[in-house]
Design a protein that fits this description.
Blueprint (H helix, E strand, L loop, with lengths): L7 H17 L9 H7 L1 H11 L4 H10 L4 H12 L18 E5 L45 H7 L30 H9 L3 H12 L8 E16 L4 E20 L7 E10 L3 H13 L16 H8 L1 H9 L6 H21 L1
Antiparallel strand pairs: 1-2, 2-3, 3-4
Amino acid sequence: MYVAVKGGEKAIANAHALLAKEGRGDERIPRIEHGAVGGQLAVLVARVMNEGSLYDPELAARAIVQAQGDVLEAVTLVRSYRTTLHRFGYTLPVDTAQLPPQRRVSATFKDLPGGQQLGATFDYTHRLFADRGSEGPAAAATNDDEAMPRVADLLGTEALMEPERPEGFDDPEPADLTREPTIFPMSRAERLQALARGDEGFLLGLAYSTQRGFGRTHPFAGEIRVGEVEVEFDAPELGFAVPLGRVEVTECQMINQFTGNAETPAQFTRGYGLVFGRAERKAMSMSLVDRALRADEFGERIVAPAQDEEFVIQHSDNVQATGFVEHLKLPHYVDFQAELGLVRKLNAERQEKA
């Protein structure tokens, strides 16, 4: 820590008071309540939950209000709170194959079993400001009982898609990145943990780079689903799993270019993304980067940033990035004076020689 400048404590207190005043805005306008944020800014809330590594829509909404809309500050608040929570154990893996989607689209098959389900999306809206008070017609939710198998599973029945678990695959218990140090190389499960809590903008940029040739991916959106899945906790003292409730998630299965040789049949490869809430852009970006980071598995040359595991994982965490960038605002008086003195000395020596 840096030694406080004389009078710094009072100045900081005044800065906090000014922040609260400016954040309140016009007092003639009602204060924004976190309930309104949670209900009307669900996409923003989902981002804070993902990058904060905690599924709690109400808490994420409170963080957004307290942070005055600063997403990274809200994520930091959520993560800080998360470290105070007691950990009782781990839930069972969720079964996304049984996810009843509120939205389900595929760019690979027009007439897939169960059909396309548009749900709530910006994909077909005109990018124009809507009239105030214009809500538009309410969309009726479908409640069909028709099975909706995953596209990757459909391809898997014909052996056209690499299996989720190759034959003889040893599936070790993944490390918990929030409790254990990061060690490279990482398992795919550990990488997916890091990508799920990574900065959406950073992952979007990397995903875009892979599509432009910097990462060997030629993707098709196999399937994107948004819906609620049940979370269960295995209680050893009871001997059976206890349902804890349902959480909203977005899942993306990205189908990538195929591989094969004389001994192995040609099969599509896959990238995977699973995130909290309605966060399609994040899930798609995650799945593209996941596939790029699997270069070693397929014997591909690592030539792009999105394929470099250490580069991606070490720089995708926005809380670490924010801290390291914003620490530059702290006093560096002594360091700068030392370098300033060195530069003056070098220039003085140069002038003497001249």
